[in-house]
Structure formats: structure tokens, C-alpha cells
Amino acid sequence: MPPRRMKFWGWGFEGEGATPEERTAVHKTAATKFGATTFDDTPPRAEDYTLRAPRVAVPQALAGFCSSERLDRLVHAYGKSFIDSVRIFERRVPNPPDVVAYPGGEQDVVDLLDWAASNDVAVIPFGGGSSVVGGVEPVVGDAFKGVVSVNLQRLDKVLEVDKASRAARIQAGVLGPQLEAQLRPHGVTLRHFPQSFEYSTLGGWIATRSGGHFATLYTHIDDFVEQVRMVTPRGVWESFRLPGSGAGPSPDRLAIGSEGALGVITEAWMRLQDRPRFRAGTSVGFRTFEDAWGAVRAISQAGLYPANVRLLDRVEAHTTGAGDGTADVMVLAFESADHDVGPWMARALECVRDHGGTPDMDQLEATGGHREGASGAWRNAFIRMPFFREILTPLGVLFDTFETAITWDRFGDFHANVMAALHDVMRRECGPGAIASCRFTHVYPDGPAPYFSFYGKGRPGGMVDQWQAIKHACSDVLNRLGGTITHHHAVGRDHMPWYEKQRPDLFAAALQGAKDAIDPSGVMNPGVLLPPKRQTASGAATAVR
Amino acid sequence: MPPRRMKFWGWGFEGEGATPEERTAVHKTAATKFGATTFDDTPPRAEDYTLRAPRVAVPQALAGFCSSERLDRLVHAYGKSFIDSVRIFERRVPNPPDVVAYPGGEQDVVDLLDWAASNDVAVIPFGGGSSVVGGVEPVVGDAFKGVVSVNLQRLDKVLEVDKASRAARIQAGVLGPQLEAQLRPHGVTLRHFPQSFEYSTLGGWIATRSGGHFATLYTHIDDFVEQVRMVTPRGVWESFRLPGSGAGPSPDRLAIGSEGALGVITEAWMRLQDRPRFRAGTSVGFRTFEDAWGAVRAISQAGLYPANVRLLDRVEAHTTGAGDGTADVMVLAFESADHDVGPWMARALECVRDHGGTPDMDQLEATGGHREGASGAWRNAFIRMPFFREILTPLGVLFDTFETAITWDRFGDFHANVMAALHDVMRRECGPGAIASCRFTHVYPDGPAPYFSFYGKGRPGGMVDQWQAIKHACSDVLNRLGGTITHHHAVGRDHMPWYEKQRPDLFAAALQGAKDAIDPSGVMNPGVLLPPKRQTASGAATAVR
């Protein structure tokens, strides 16, 4: 077990968190906006929690890499969502895992799954634990004798680098910074930077179809996977390592997004890129939101493939310090390892001006511009945001986000309806003063991925109920209007009701059939993607179809 | 049934074929290279064939759109591969479908599948019938009472065009030219041009993971699919229409490449593009093959995304008239609907010169260059090639191709080994004078998709055996060295032995589980992707696992 220990009650490792300055600023905002005043500065301590006794114990052969220590169980009891934070601060942990396993290699995973599958013990693969959708929460129904969380952190090596193809074979438990540090000496990068980059793993990215920081083209983990190796209860699944293939439905695309419900991803060959050397970036102000997204659409359909073409509505721009609230802001950037991106930026700025946008030319002239001005402010807020949760929650500020994707033809009405529903439910649940905003995290030629953020005043002891009301109202609207229930945060347990409405029923049947074939006892992350098997009246466990 | 009738014994529609000039040229080459002299000019006639009587008849309710006429059964008895051609010319059609259905709408497909699934009748979805891998051949094992081929040609409409998102809802049976003709008035294009474009359908492209003509980026049908609608024996599967999603494994990616083994794709929302207005193209000569593929690799990794960066080795260049056989030739082109592609081409030409390439600057200066010089010669040969099969086969010339994909680090050895194996088996099977060549059809940052062509002297009555020996030898090498058994021609029945070695065993189990759930009687295209269910000693049909 490594020296750095994950915080069980907040973002990152022990000792990390908001700076004093950030803390003061967040306090001030919370007080101004929501009248929040009380704040207990003391971080939760492990001894604050009453945990039920472990219900299962691993056999001797597995004991060397398993733990039922209080702190291990606490760290693996929740992900990092808003309601995870609320429940941690409320000292409520009803479902800790019984065992936490830290396999040292693939054979440990094989042995663990053998034991779990033969003993009705549920298995929850755990990468960085940064799930915000209940993906790693040990709530698995009543058909299991216990739960083991499998933390892959010891599988943290880049095993091979192939410079000619720009690819590497990488263990699934590696965190973003560890991964990039191992690639840097070779002059290559995975260039996949989700917001959780520092605290999430390659395996987690693949299992959840992670979306990177970049707005267009090569940013989704899906497109970087060249080969997957996954341990299932029936053995190891390994695809050929290929740049492209048309041999039947892609095996990798079934593993990608499987969220631990089919197996534990242990390693993958990943496509890399040369480290960018050329950059151009700026931000652009727009008088209306319609103009702004019209410009985004034009750029997305022009075949320019900017690294960033992120739209912040004026509220989002204001709350993140990227604007004064009088204009919608586009963050625009190009990057290349190969060539000057001037012609690309020049054409994008034409699109921008065609739609009434005003680019910040000073910022563009600065060194690349991507960490300057409004873009830099937004980028900093984006990275620091998750640390603010542990300040906001005990202050009684309700804060969460959700994201979706929709085609351009439907976007205008869709956005209006979602914002209306969000404002409406926030007013009902949180009273006046609630804040809601929208940005685009990713943009496709056929539509954007809008991301909604909201803040409101929480009710003491009622924040989980408030959140549920908001989540249900907004998810219902997304689903009814044809948006996806999740664009890059995964399904987990939180999104299951809407995921079940969204996916084709026959795909659900097919996926259940696939799972039954490779996880016949149904122990892999039960309740995620498919309903958990249930205890019958006779005491036998059956799969729910 | 439309006025144009498909040729059952060759490429295209009745009345189409090689021109007299092409015919003369092919004859001359065949005589020079292989001493081929005999040639019976008479096309095969339907009455030349003895077909077994239909083993099943559809009920009255389906009869209105079904046929058991000789010509319908002949047209659907084979695809368009070399051995299909040989068997047709040998007047051998042992496995015609018993019935050919021409559904007029989705409900017809639903009704047909209901009947087939309840009556142990195998169902083979049939788009343009251009499969070169046995994908539509009614060889389904012994567990079925009969076979119905489902020709989707009446589902040939673009149903909706969404200009804002650049997408359209399109019926699956539409042929390439029909599709583009319906999109043209809207100023958009699917821009998916496989070699079979004129004689293949949207549904076929999706079912087989078709690769378009373009060499990089958006060319695979996989990336154009926004939503799929598929009729399965258990009902209709329809995904949400989304620009992007992270909600579990992609349902669309299970339908894409399903080759009719899960259901009949009836329509899809497809991503479109604006029609290109800016073009730059040329061809580049290289002194060595290593220099040439080094340049291709550099361009593919530069983030320039040319529409074409196709490498023809000197033999391929010579046989297609794109070169004199003294140089390997790169066909290089950029296209855009939005902007001048000069800066892109300029940078690509730098990469080319870095690797010792000599671009044809005259061709570049000509109108766009993509239909001029070596590029134009190659393009013409590419499109006309399939018509030559019906001349070459009766001349006793063995001619076929196979394609794969491999990462760059392995490509040099891989290419040498595959070419050696191909030359070796060609020498054994066809004697001296055999020709073998290689080109790249698609290029990825992590590797190329090499495509091998071969010609040799056939043995009268022995060409199927010769082909099988060559196919086995080459496929064994591809598989052993880690190349995919198919990059864009699909698995069909011909590639099953190597596909079964290539895919993870547990993926096979998962796919069988998925199929069992939505096609419980196993009637959908039996023997493709999964082994067909078999008749047991007791007479009951069981699935083979």
C-alpha cells in the first residue's frame, strides 16, 4: 500500500485540499449568495463512523493483498459525488465493502474473482474512486454474502512503449500523473485529461468511457484504446492489438463502458500522441447565447478540430471568473505537435466573427494563450472545483452538475427546457437565489455535449432528498427530450432508471445475455448497467431480466 | 421489384460490364502473363442451372412480397467473391435460398422474422449482395428447414434530412448512388465511398463495418452512425439519436458489424458532411517501399488528416497504370467544404520530401489533381476492377485480394512475411508468373491497413481448391503475426476459422449470449460470427458453443 492515502471524505489525497485563499473566497461567496455561515472546519475522522462488521473474510491464499481495516473500508464506501459528500459529512456509511483487495498483479485478480464467484461475493472494481454516479458504491442488492472492492492501485506501470506506432501497454491502475510521468521520457503523451485526471485511472477511464479535456476529435478514451485485457469470472479476455478492424462487432467496444459489470480491466494498449509544441488560444465574447452556439456549431462542422471550443454561458463565465457576466464566452484553442496552427485559428476566427463574436486578440498574441485571460481563469477553476465540495457541503450549499449530449437541430429548445426545469426545481427545493449555468464540454459536428452546473441553499439534514428531487426532475427532462443520461460521467447506480429507458430493451437483453455468459454468478458490480440478481423466496439467487 | 435487375453471375446490373476496350486490354494481359487463350463470351443464363426445389413456402400473408422464382434465387445464391464467380461459371449452385423476400416496409420484416423464427427457417439479410466473404451465401448448417434471403431494396428512401446537425434518417436498403442523389439537393453528402458504392447499401455498410474510400479520419461507417434501428426476432431495437454518449457500452457498436447475425438493420440516422469545395491532390514517387511507408506514417501522425494518403507498391502501381513499376507511389489528397487546404498539403509535402519522395507538382497545379495523373489512373482502375472478374474467371485467371491492419512497429516484418507467404503459395498453386502486390487502403496514426492483390494461372476445374490453399496460407500468416483477418470486408463465412482465433474466446461467449437473448431460435444468418446451431442425434436443434 503506497505512502499517499486517499481522503475518504473528500477529493484527492490526505493533506490536499483548498488553499486558505480559496477557502476564504468560497466562504465569502457562500455567505453572500446563500447566507451560509456555519462551518465546522474539522475534517471527518475515521473513528466518527460506526461500520457494520465485515460479513465475509477472504481465504488465507488471498489475505496477503486484502484488508478489512476501517480506513480501507471507508475510502471504498463512496465515490466523490455530491450525495457521497453529504452522507460522509452526516457520518452515514451504511454500506462499506467488507473487504478491500489490493491485487499486486493479474493473477491476484483471477484468484480473487474465482473465490468471489464461487462464494456469492460481489466484486466492485475500483480505480481512483472518483465516480460521481455511484459506480463504486457497495450497494448490490440482497443476493450476496458480502462485497469486495478491488483497488487496482498497485497495477500502475507502463509496461511497453512502441514509439513507431505511438502506443503503449499500460496497467489499468495507473493514475493520470503517474502515467504521464512514465510516458514523458519517451516524448509521448496519452493526452487524455478528464477533470479527475490526478485521481482517476486508465482502467476507470476505459470502464466509464471517459471524455478528456479536449473538445473535439481525439479526446474520448474510446478512440485511444488499441487493445483491452480484462479479467472476468470465467477467465481473461484479450483482444488483438490493432490500429483498425472490421472483424465483427468490436470486442473492445463492449469492454469500453462496461463499468465493472463484465470484468476487471487489468491492462490496455493505448494510442498515444506526440507532445504538442505549437499552440494558439484565445477567448471570444458573444452578445447572445444563440450567436455563441452558432459559432461553435460552425467551427465544429468546418473540419478544423480545435483542441478546445468550449462555450461558457454568461453565468458559468461569471462564476468561474472567466467573464463579468455580460457575455457568453467561447474558449478556443488549437494544438499540434507537428505544425504551426495559425491557419487553423485564422479560419476559426472567421467563423467566430461571422457569428458576431469578439475574440480577445491580446490573449491570442500572448504565449499560446491557453493559460491566459478568460481561458486560463476557467481552466484553473475547472481543475480546483472538486476540492471546493468539501467546503461547500458542510456550509449547506447544494452543488452538483449533470451533462448530456443532443443534436444541433434540437439544442435550442432542449437547452431552454432543461434550464427551465432546472430553475423550477431549484426554486422549489432551494428557494430563491439558486444559480444554474451551462457550458459545452465536448462538441461534435452533429451536436454539443452541454454540461449543467447548479448551486442552491441546502436544508440541514435534507440535502440528499433535495438532490434526489433535482436529479429526478432534470433526468426526466433529458430523457424525455432525447438527450443521453450521461455523456462522460457513466451510468453507475445513480443513472440506472434513465439508462434503462434510454437503451434499447433488446440491447439490455443482449447485454444480460453477454454478462450471463462471462459472469454466470452475476458478481461483477451488481446493479450497474443491469439489475442485480435478487434473493428469491426460496433463498436461491436469480438474475432479474 | 424494380426495373433494373442484378446480374447473378457478375458485378452490377444486367447490361453493365467491361467496355470492349477494357475487355481487349484484359484479354491481352491475361494472354501475355498467363498464356490464357480460351474464352467463352456467352454470359451464363439462368436456365443453365439446376436448382433444388424450394424446401419451404411462406404463408399467404407474406407471399405478396416473396418470390421463389429461379432468377431471384440465383441472384441471392452467392455474393461477388472470386470463388462465387468460379462456382457460377462452373454452373454450380448447390445452396440457393428457398425464398427471396422483398419487404416493402419494416412491418414486413417483423412479420417475416416472426414466421422464420417460429418455423426454423434461416434468414439472410441481403443489401446489395456485394459480399466477397460469403456473408450472404445460404450455407447455414443442417438445423433449418429452409433459407429466406431478405433483400432490402425497396427500403431505399432518405426519410428526413436535418441540415442543422448535418444528419439524415435513411432506410437501410438504399444503394450508394440513390442515397447521394437524395442528399444532393440538400447540399450534403454521406461521403462514404467503398469500392462497391454503386452496388451496396447503407444497411450492408453498417452490418459489415464498411470502410469508405478515404484513407484517414471520417471514412468508416462506424463513425457516421448516429442511431440504428434493427429488427430482431424478438422485436425492434432502436437506440437514441445522439452525437455522443457515455451510457454503458454503445448499443450501436454491437449492431455495427453484426453481419445480420443479430437482426435486420432497417434504418439509421447517419452523420453527413457538406460537399467538398476545396481540393488539392497529387501523387508522389519513392525510391524504396520503406521510404514510402515512412512518409505515410509521418503524415498519418501529423494530425493533417488527408482525404487520401494511399500507398501503392510499384507492382500495384504498374498493374493499375498508376506507375511504370520503377517507383512506389503515394496518392495524396486533401479535401474540405470549408477552407483552402493549401497549408495542409504544404505540410504533407514537407513530410514527403523528408522521406525522399518526389511529388508530381504538375498534377498538383492541375484542377485539384485528384482525378489527374497517377491518382486518376489508379482511381479509375479501382472502380472498374470488379467488372473484370467476369472476364478473368472464364479465362482461367485466379484473381483475389485480402486486407488486414497492423501497427507500424510490426509492419516491416509483417509485410515481408505476408508477401513471402503469398509468393510461396502462389508459386505452388499457380506456377511461375504469379503477380502479388500491396497497397494501403486506410492509414491510422498507429498503423496501416495493407491490402494485398494477387493474380495467377488457374487450373481448369481446380480454381476453388487453389483459392482455398492460398486463402488458408495467407490467413494463417495474418493471424499468426497479429493482423486482423479482415479490415473492411467483414467476416462472413470465409473468414470464420481465423475470426474465431482472433477474437477473445470470452467475447465469443458474450456474443453468443447476446444472440441467444434476441435471436433465441438462432435463425439470423447462421454460421456468420457464431457457429450455426446444429441438428442433434435426437433431431432437436442446439446451438454450438
What's the short version?
Chain A is of the alpha+beta class. Helices cover 34% and strands 20% of the residues of chain A.
Q: What is the CATH topology assignment of the largest domain in chain A?
A: Vanillyl-alcohol Oxidase, Chain A, domain 3
Count of distinct strands of chain A: 20
Structural class of chain A: alpha+beta
- With helices defined by DSSP (H or I, 4 residues minimum), what is the helix count of chain A? 18
Shape of chain A: globular
Which value, in Å, is the CA radius of gyration of chain A? 23 Å
Average residue pLDDT of chain A? 94
Describe the structure.
- Chains A, B: Its cofactor is FAD.
- Chains A, B: Belongs to the FAD-binding oxidoreductase/transferase type 4 family.
- Chains A, B: Keywords: FAD, Flavoprotein.
- The structure is a homodimer of 545-residue chains.
- With 545 residues, the first copy, chain A, is an alpha+beta fold.
- The first copy, chain A, folds into four domains: 20-151, 2-Layer Sandwich (Uridine Diphospho-n-acetylenolpyruvylglucosamine Reductase, domain 2); 158-274, Uridine Diphospho-n-acetylenolpyruvylglucosamine Reductase, domain 3 (2-Layer Sandwich); 278-494, FAD-linked oxidase, cap domain/gating helix (Vanillyl-alcohol Oxidase, Chain A, domain 3, 3-Layer(aba) Sandwich); 497-542, no CATH class.
- Chain A contains 18 helices and 20 strands.
- Chain A has helices at residues 20-34, 60-63, 70-75, 82-89, 106-118, 176-183, 202-208, 221-224, 251-255, 289-300, 314-319, 342-354, 361-365, 373-392, 408-430, 463-480, 496-502, 505-518, and strands spanning 66-67, 99-101, 121-126, 146-151, 158-162, 167-171, 188-189, 225-232, 235-238, 264-271, 273-274, 278-286, 308-312, 328-336, 358-359, 397-403, 435-444, 447-457, 534-535, 541-542.
- The first copy, chain A, has a five-stranded antiparallel sheet with strand order 5-6-10-8-9. A four-stranded mixed sheet of chain A has the order 1-2-4-3, covered by helices on one side. A four-stranded antiparallel sheet of chain A has the order 13-14-12-15, sandwiched between helices.
- In chain A, helix 10 runs antiparallel to helix 12 (342-354) and helix 15 packs antiparallel against helix 16 (463-480).
- The longest helix of chain A is centred in the C-terminal third of the chain and has 23 residues, at 408-430.
- The radius of gyration of chain A is 23 Å and the shape is globular.
- The two termini of chain A are 39 Å apart.
- The model of chain A has no long low-confidence stretch (mean pLDDT 94).
- The interface between A and B is large, with 95 and 95 residues.
